[in-house]
Amino acid sequence: MKLKLDENGHVVVQEGKPVYVHDDGKEVAFDVAGTVATITRLNGEAKSHRERAEAAEQSLKAFEGISDPSAAIKALGIVQNLDAKKLVDAGEVEKVKAEAIKAVEDKYAPIVAERDQLQASLVAEMVGGNFARSKFIAEQLAIPADLAQARFGDAFKVENGAVVAYDKSGNKLYSRSNPGELAGFDEAFQILIDQYPYRDQILKSSGATGGGASGGSGGGAGSKSLSRAAFEAMPSGQQMAHIKAGGSVTD
């Protein structure tokens, strides 16, 4: 990154933050205070991870010399059965335990299924809500939010109650303006669009204005109209060609 300078050689400042220019030409106001706070937090987390690792390593020293952990665990189970003065074969005890566990699992299986369904609904609502409310999608894309979600929705997940974006390599997308912090929805979505090979076909032209960006030669009365079901049944390449040609999609 390079500092952006004005014609007098002075650093350009935006909302009290120095502006940097990335190698790809994008300009970002760099939050120095936020970056320092993030570095401090990450250092604290690293120290906590190191201390936990050292504690775990110390605990494992008690098991030095055991070459077969599974055999040791089985032996401990047999000893526990004997210590409890259970005059039952150790294998029968394990069978009873397995049956008891299965009974509990069967009892709560419907509750677990309902929980998973509610979790899926929550994810759909959080991710879908971000697509529906996105200012970037409304102002910059030539396709509606639901089609954008159909193509890019898999890149977003809900983790710890927040929507997190991933690139096609499975890496989390981080903010350029707040280094060390995860990118917000619109910033992450813009990064995904920048990496999309057909982005020029789904972005509005520079001359488009307003949220609908209709008018001109692209969306007039002579444009071909398809039902949403017909549009979604088309291959993605034909969908893009239809949109680029000024076609419309109706519910």
UniProtKB/TrEMBL annotation:
Q: Where is this region: Disordered?
A: 209-228
Domain (DUF6651) spans 115-214
| Top-level taxon of origin | Bacteria
Q: Which InterPro entries match?
A: DUF6651
Where are the compositionally biased (Gly residues) regions?
209-222
Q: What is this protein called?
A: DUF6651 domain-containing protein
Organism of provenance: Chromobacterium amazonense
